[in-house]
Design brief:
Blueprint: E1 3-6, H1 13-21, H2 27-33, E2 47-50
Antiparallel strand pairs: 1-2
Helix pairs in contact: 1-2
Length: about 50
């Protein structure tokens, strides 16, 4: 079951992937699950789907 995560100030897709998957290099998995969200334009407060 996918989880949700609300982006906090200072977050990057790399840091979020590191938190959930223990591997920041899997950030593309999060991007893909969220309509290819641009890692350079993450906005605080958006809710990301975190796939299993």
């Amino acid at each position: 079951m996918a989880q949700q995560y609300t982006v906090q100030a200072g977050d990057t897709l790399f840091s979020i992937a590191q938190h959930f998957y223990k591997d920041g290099n899997l950030w593309g998995k999060i991007s893909t699950a969220n309509n290819n969200v641009n890692p350079n334009s993450l906005q605080t407060g958006i809710v990301l789907q975190i796939p299993d």
